[in-house]
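Database export, one record per block. Field names are fixed; values are copied verbatim from the stored entry.
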Amino acid sequence: MKRIAEWFAAVGAAASKSGKRLVAVVAAVAMLGGVAGVSATAMADDQSAADTQQSTAQTETPANTDSKDAGTDTGNKDDSTKADATKSDDAASADAAASELTKQTAPAPTSTLNTQAAEATNGSCVYAGNVASGLNNVCWLDMTNFTAAQNQLQPMSVKLSDSLTMKFNIKYTGGRTLRSAAVPTWNKAAFGHYGYAGFPEGTKPALYQITGSYNTESTVELTDIKIVNADGSEITGNYSFMMADAESTNNNESISFTSSNEIEQVAQFPQQGDADYKNYAFGDQTFSADHKTVTGGGVRTGANPGIYLYKTKSPDTVSVTMRVNVRREIQAAIFGVLFSNAETTVTTNNASDTFAGKVESQTYGSEQTGGVTGSNSATSKVVNMLSDTDTSEQVKFTLSASENTNWNDYNVSFTCDGDCGEYDATPQIDTATGNRYVTVSVASEKSAHGKWDGI
């Protein structure tokens, strides 16, 4: 009993510095442990409980990500959270004391470690409306359906095209909560303003920290990554998985990208010639010896931080670790998949027969126009093909005709717009069907549009 009395005396001394907040903590401890029969009702008044409830609510409130305080050297501040993020030394001491007391007397809280969040099965990927520089045809994973809590594993399925779906498990750990967010994440973020901009309204491709603990980090990891066809069969060909900083890495911050395969830098934003390029700077980046990890350091000047775009080939696992030192500092990451694509158009001019065009990849399927006759035109849907940055894809364009068509009545011609490589523009004849066809090689992350005319 004497030791208990001395313990409460020490707690009382701490409470004289930090006010009712610590009294509420002691009351909670007394209730949990029944220390010496002390009643929680006798230890904490109604105001203390209200203070504790208010503190909890403030901790769980997400940060405003629409803009950041431009009145700082780095510009990486959140106006709406400055009051919550700044605490006095006495309050910090009270936090530490309360934490220590809880460890000694309270039962362990229920943990979400190794639990699983509900599977998200109806995701999609989104393209930027404007791609001014860098790689074309990157489809960014929309994380709107990401709901996992800290340490929870969440299975996700993201539809990449009509025939392709990416599946993976996602989990984040560390001292900050992550949530999905629209891009640009703030008004000076390079991503969303340069390279890739104009994302569809309502989409949330970024994973964004909220304000919280200082001198901490968040790691988000995607594991068991695979891409499957509509029939469920797994795609085994190489493709480029894309990763980027979706916010900014300022002084005393860093961001690390890790993959099960080698990582390569493929672009940086903004680029010379972009508006306000002179107001941006780039932090150092350090690759591991095996090139499976790259760490970007923060920009140490008053300039706005630019970003790097990375690719890794067909990974099983990727992760991003975002480190911050100040409570109000926040960072974000974004993931995407690189594609090339092809489509076809058929145009007729007073044709008495009916024609249709088809574009086909042996690996990624085909699309076809409707029948065209008279003086009309029709264009197929796009065939999206997973793309590696150093590999082209063979695509076959075919023109078919209705039964009993006399091909000699038509002067069929073919042209290919876009990145079609070298090809023979003279249509070949399928001896079994009479159909005309041309094969082209679509360059990595490029587009090809095969056009049939003279019909």
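Remark 1: The two ends are 101 Å apart (CA to CA).
Remark 2: The helical segments are 2-18, 20-33, 40-43, 46-60, 82-85, 89-105.
End of record.
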